[in-house]
Amino acid sequence: MPLSFAKPGTSSLPIYLIAPEELEATLVRLDPAQAEWARAQGFNAGVGTLCLLPGPDGIAGALAGLGRSQERARQRFILGAVRAKLPKATYRLETELADDALDEQLLGWLFSGYVFDVYAQKNAPEAELLAPEGVDAARLETIALGEALTRDLINTPANDMGPAELEFAARALAKEHGAEIAVTTGTELLDGNFPMIHAVGRASPRDPRLVDMRWGKSGPKLTLVGKGVCFDTGGLNLKPGASMGLMKKDMGGAATVIGLAKMIMALDLPLQLRVLIPAVENAVDGSAFRPQDILTSRKGLTVEINNTDAEGRLVLADALALADETPPDLMISMATLTGAARVALGPDVPPFFATDMRDAAILSQASAKVADPLWQLPYWEPYETMIEPGIADLDNAPSGGMAGAITAALFLRRFVTETPRYMHFDIYGWCPSPLPARPKGGVGQGARAILAALPELLKL
Q1: Which is catalytic among the residues 299, 313, 414, 421?
Q2: For residues 241 and 53, what is the distance between their CA atoms, to the nearest angstrom?
Q3: Which residues, including other chains, have CB under 8 Å from residue 300's CB and lie 6 or more apart?
Q4: Is residue 176 pLDDT above 80, yes or no?
């Protein structure tokens, strides 16, 4: 299967994953004819290169290039780039790598098996790999399946992925793992005191809702909150066409926490998990909320609307306020929130914010360890005045265009007052061009780093 390893005991062919400085030492281990063949092909072990080795019955194995250290620093999941080039067969790695480097390459192999073929037929790679001895293959496969779920949700177009469909995905996951789930929908949001979720979603014929999933009966408490804006027109501050083109991915925060929740539950981590997803469509009709409206949030804070296209922080605010009423040990929000984050760090490196500097250090170390890049930005206190409009407690879209990712994070932090440890991730959730193990389209960001950090963050 593309997202799993071959069954143990399957006959296999060797793959030598090597750097240029290791090439000659590897060639002398081969049959002389194979070594001569590799030299004749000009194989230089450059990053992602491949040389198939001949044998009496056809292909006898392969050499795959890791590239030089500078190339490796620029490229993740190199083995994933090789997989699609390999003919159908089962392979085994004949290269010793450090544990973290090995896991990265094996995940690259699994991730490269992902295809989104719901609307058009696509061929998954047919090459399979045996998991090396000593590797926790089940854990890696679980991570790959969680990542695939995130990608599927983001890649599904908005006509088939509205608030109801996002709820269905959460319900399916809850059923799979025996989690409890409750959903507040439509005008029930007003009765339940979620006024900003309702305000953002009320103009759509597809009812807004808040999904609340709980799993686990003991252990530290972790709450994940994911922005589920299933399509964002910008509301009355209508986006131009070029900016609206990727807005099916504006539920990427929800998709990422759902994928992370799948990993956590499938791995049976000893914690109590809560997942909150405000799921809405930011549409336009006569009932749409307006610029200069002042909304009262669940927290009681009033918010002046200075741009209806800054709606993600509004729906998150009500969900965060709910989570904060029963404070967990750690709260995490994930959202495709600001273009400012992309300007600052580009599509590959999401910024994160943390109220606890020790948590930030643990996460940064985990990020590097599992090749899931993140970069800390500050909750910069002097910018608090930028989100205080005077006529209301908060401004959802400060003028001036500066520090947009930071002011958005400061806005969200105002709704988390009882939970000391809170982290916010401003992700992109999209791979704009094909990369090894990451086709163009939806992609998970930050989930693997969080998963790797949880044992230390929560003392599991």
Answers
A1: 313
A2: 50
A3: none
A4: yes
CA distance 37 to 49: 15
Per-residue pLDDT, averaged over 445-452, amounts to: 98
Reduced to 3 states, what is the DSSP secondary structure of residue 8?
Answer: coil
Helix, strand, or coil (residue 203): coil
Integer CA distances (angstroms), 345 to 375, 376, 377, in order: 8, 11, 10
Supply the DSSP symbol for 41: T
The pLDDT > 70 percentage for the chain reads 100
pLDDT digits (tens, 9 = 90+) for 314-333: 999 999 999 999 999 999 99
Looking at residue 345, its pLDDT comes to 98
239: annotated active-site residue: yes
Instruction: Identify the pLDDT of residue 460.
Output: 96
What are the two backbone dihedrals, phi and then psi, of residue 270, each rounded to the nearest 5 degrees? -80, 70
Q: Which domains does the chain have, with CATH numbers?
A: 13-125 (3.40.220.10), 141-457 (3.40.630.10)
- 155 burial via Cβ count (<10 Å: 0-12, 13-18, 19+): buried
- Phi/psi at 317 (nearest 5 deg)? -60, -45
CA 179 vs CA 9, 150, 291: distances in Å: 36, 18, 39
Helix pair 137-155, 99-111: axis angle to 10 deg: 40
DSSP state of 250: G
| Alpha-carbon gap, residue 328 to 420, rounded angstroms | 9
β-pair type (90-93, 128-129):
parallel
Q: How many whole angstroms separate alpha carbon 29 and alpha carbon 49?
A: 19
Decide if 217 is catalytic. no
pTM of the model: 0.97
Q: Which of 66-80, 209-223, 246-260 is least confident? A: 66-80
| Model pLDDT, residue 382 | 97
Instruction: List C-alpha distances in Å: 243 to 122, 231, 239, 248, 310.
Output: 28, 12, 6, 11, 13
- Residue among 252, 316, 281, 273 at smallest CA distance from 174: 273
Which residues does 319 contact at the CB level (< 8 Å), separation at least 6?
194, 197, 210, 225, 276, 277, 278
Residue with tokens 């999933």: 213
pLDDT at 368: 97
Cβ–Cβ < 8 Å for 311, 279: no
For 239, the token pair is 């986006």
Provide CB contacts within 8 A for 112, sequence distance 6+.
Answer: 77, 79, 80, 81, 83, 84, 125, 436, 437
Distances (CA, A) of 234 to 252, 286, 403: 16, 15, 20
Q: Exactly one of 68, 85, 239, 369 is catalytic; which is it? A: 239
Q: Strand locations in 170-217, DSSP E? A: 180-185, 209-215
Given 3-state DSSP classes, what are the helix, strand and coil percentages for the chain, each rounded to the nearest 5? 40, 20, 40
